[in-house]
TrEMBL record:
Source organism of the structure: groundwater metagenome
Protein name per UniProt: Uncharacterized protein
Amino acid sequence: MEKAEACLKFINNKLKEVEESKISGNIEKYFFNLSSVVSDFAFVGDLYYIIEEYEKAKKCFSKAVEFDMEYIKIKREIGDKDRENFPIILNNGKNIAFL
């Protein structure tokens, strides 16, 4: 229980970094921090589940999913920009390479 509470304090500090990187527009740092927060919330959820604190585990898993959805959204946006900057060469309808 103490380990889970300590991890939550760490996550709260990490959430401040997430917000700062989002505000500053540093997309790479924001993307990295989101990934970290997702795995941290999932880890704490596992800890709570092991000690049978199911409501707390559920809240942590919900937060992990919430931030994972944001992470996926950013990942898609980055991917879309990459495809715009490096279009795919098509040969007979098959993807060959990025320019």
